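for the writeup, i need someone to sanity check this before i put it in the appendix. the sequnce is what the collaborator sent (i think, or maybe the updated version? ugh). structure was predicted straight from it, no edits. if anything looks off just tell me and ill rerun, i have time this weekend
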Amino acid sequence: MSIEQRIQEIRRESSSDAPGDPERFRRIELTEKEMLSQGDAISATLKANAGPLAKIAVDLKDRPVRRIVMVGCGDSWISGFGVRHVAERLLGAVCEPCEAFDFAAYGLDVVDSETVAIGLSSSGKTEPVIDGLKGATDRGAYAIGLSNTPGSPLMEEFPGALLIRATRGGWPTQSSTAAMALKLALIAAVAEARGKDTSSLDNALEALPKTVDSVATSFYGPARDIARRLARADLVLLTGAGPHYAPAAFGAAKLKELAPIHALAFPLEEYHHYRTQKAGDPMFLIAPDEASHPRALETAIMSVASDGTCIALVPDGESEIADVADVAWHLPPVAWETTPIIYSVPLHLFGYHAAVERDAIGLGAPRLGG
């Protein structure tokens, strides 16, 4: 097989980074539709899985669980960062988001019967996810598959199966946020079966669809305005602490897929251990909570000092970071359990608008020396 044939076999992607590529823009248009209907996808997913969640809760009610691994690739992996702390607080077990290939190749040695392995793949066919869950099952773990695709291997081959009622004709938006909501509902179901108070999480999930849609409507215009301002940027930085690394990573993924430009997401503290931001670099700073607020404020200050552009996502009423940042997006108050989902939505929107605005001025993917 020639190198060219091998490239085509590995790539598995029908679109290109060229300006105006019709296949990429077909998917960009689908992404817009899907990201603006995330509330419906979340509602449908939660409603449809009441029965399967109850079954899994019964299976795990009295089973010793010391470790939970959330396995996936790309956005499916990232989603675990947004829900891990909820799992740890309610279930009292260590929860680790594991990149699927790494888990299957390197992470099975410490898997045992007190492990719950949750694998997420939109297609239900992602080989590293399936390999990881099979390896975990062989070592006694309880495995749960989440997928958008009924009848896929991930939905058929493991003790637990949860169907995400979302589409992914474009690049992942609702397929990721609905999956995160479903993971939270799974945590709630198991915790309730074990006698824990889940009222806070239950209320957060009930309010989630309406809030997601409200934020998407409110930030459609502001995301477009910032995309126009930053249309010529070839690199965008995104940062957040703890569970808010997830929105940063989702935002970077959308820019790399849609725009398509270089984008880098990193945990908040890591900004301060390198000369991370150069003059002119735009950075999205996700700072929804008190725990990260002091360091986020210092990050905003250093962003301005570096002559970069700082766009801060902060809650309503926050003024310290907002006064320092070049642009502040104030989001409505939401429960801590669902904050990573809500704060992902404006970044989905920015990725979409960045693609549209770059195309309008004839820009495709940046090239070294270009």
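Strands lie at 67-72, 94-99, 115-120, 142-147, 160-163, 235-240, 262-267, 282-286, 309-315, 327-331. The longest helix spans residues 199-229.
thx in advance!!
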